[in-house]
Amino acid sequence: xxxxxxxxxxxxxxxxxxxxxxxxxxxxxxxRVLASGAPVDVTQGTGGTVLRLPEKLDPSDTVIVLDx
Length: 68
Fold this sequence. Notes:
The protein has a single domain (2-67), classed as Immunoglobulin-like, CATH 2.60.40. Helices cover 0% and strands 46% of the residues. The chain has no helices and 7 strands. Strand 1 (2-4) and strand 2 (7-12) form a beta hairpin. It is globular and about 30 Å long.
């Protein structure tokens, strides 16, 4: 992950896991694929933040933008 003001960039290198989970993230208002703008579903709870990735991703590196 990298970040700048108001955004966190998640680099997805393992496309075999369609539901990556993260703990310790701040509240996410919106998530999308950087290259296409396609929305990414986000579920947040006490256990952390879970992203539901789109089916078609770049196998080398897909960047998901989390807007805080």
